[in-house]
Amino acid sequence: MLKTAVVGVRGVGGGHFRALASHPRSELVAVADLDTAAARRLVDEQDHGSAPTVFASLDEMLDGSPGLEAVIIATPHHLHAPMSLAALEAGLHVYVEKPIAIRISDADRIVEAALQRQQVLAVGHQYRTYPGNARLKQLIEADEIGSVQRIVWQWLDTRPESYYDRDPWRSSWAHAGGGVLLNQASHDIDLLCWLFGPPAEVSATLMNRGHRHEVEDTALATVRFASGALASLQFSTWDRCLNYRQIAGDLGSIVWQDERDANVPDRPEVFRLGRYPSSLTEIITDANAAATGRPVPVWEDVQCEQSPQTSLLDSFIDAALDGGEPITTGHSARVTTELICAIILAGVQREVVSLPLDRDAFDEVFDNLSHGKKTV
Ligand SMILES: NC(=O)c1ccc[n+]([C@@H]2O[C@H](COP(=O)([O-])OP(=O)(O)OC[C@H]3O[C@@H](n4cnc5c(N)ncnc54)[C@H](O)[C@@H]3O)[C@@H](O)[C@H]2O)c1
Description:
Blueprint: E1 2-7, H1 12-22, E2 26-32, H2 36-45, E3 53-55, H3 58-64, E4 70-73, H4 80-89, E5 93-96, H5 104-117, E6 121-123, H6 131-141, E7 148-158, H7 161-166, H8 173-176, H9 180-183, H10 186-196, E8 199-207, E9 218-225, E10 230-236, E11 238-249, E12 252-258, E13 269-275, H11 280-285, E14 298-304, H12 312-322, H13 330-349, E15 353-354, H14 359-370
Parallel strand pairs: 1-2, 1-4, 2-3, 4-5, 5-6, 7-10
Antiparallel strand pairs: 7-11, 8-9, 8-15, 9-10, 11-12, 12-13, 13-14
Helix pairs in contact: 4-5, 5-13, 10-13, 13-14
The protein binds nicotinamide-adenine-dinucleotide.
Nicotinamide-adenine-dinucleotide binds next to helix 1.
């Protein structure tokens, strides 16, 4: 059994609390939240096992929980770096919610600290485990659409002002580190890096189309991946719900349109797969092809049924107890955060940004954003 704890329980942390309280390989021994009454309510819900001790802060919990082995951090974004570093320093395995940090330089420190101490570091990008996304990865890796050339990827939805009024930390650069990019689209950006590998170059436009807060609610970016694939990305919380993904390869295309939510783990997903009779390269380089030759794909529906699979939490606990790696490692989550930071830098500076990202350049721009000296 792994002795576990959760910090931050109002939102997603409440789910982590319940999952750890009932997990066959976890003994939930502590919970910390500024709102100790909320933490106590969760503890009171539990009707079996010994009750976890409630603390008002991570520091008190680290001092008062001898034998604690692992912690899930589910607090606002700006606390991820200091809390992850403190917990790693105290010898704990860490599962930190997404994003790993709001500055890439902090992500570097966290990844390095876990590596130095050989502790498990998982980051809450769990969309990789969802059936549709797992099927996408499988098809791409099996070369079903050939080498990926071009990607269109949109995540659009509506977040009314009441969402930011309820959770004011989501509104500011200093606390949220960004708007739609870090808060919502970080899942999609994680999928993009997981599916297509490391990004190499980014240009972007950021806007706040009308929310009262300072962070961006709309981001458009063009990304060149190291593989050569080109992606056109649109993310917004000033829109209607529409997830659209088009992945175009040399041998075929995948088209996925969903007007509800493309990432609900317990619902079957369907997307379209079209295969060309021969590769685009052959068609385009064939000197005898008609001057306007067009490959006609043969389309099929790909059903992605829910199937029991290891959750990110299971993989974290297994790695802490048995060795190995969680599904989303700190290292891979850092690639995602680096792309997000690159999009912010490119959008704010209105310049093309190359990766690896210049950490100092990002820190300078981020300091200016969080002190109101720059805006989007
Ligand atoms: N992986 C996912 O699908 C997913 C879903 C939702 C949220 N998240 C992430 O989880 C994190 C939390 O989001 P949320 O929606 O649950 O936020 P929230 O505001 O609802 O909850 C944050 C909790 O942290 C507590 N807290 C704040 N400062 C604290 C401190 N110094 N010490 C102890 N506790 C403190 C608050 O009291 C609150 O209970 C964010 O990083 C968010 O991006 C991830």
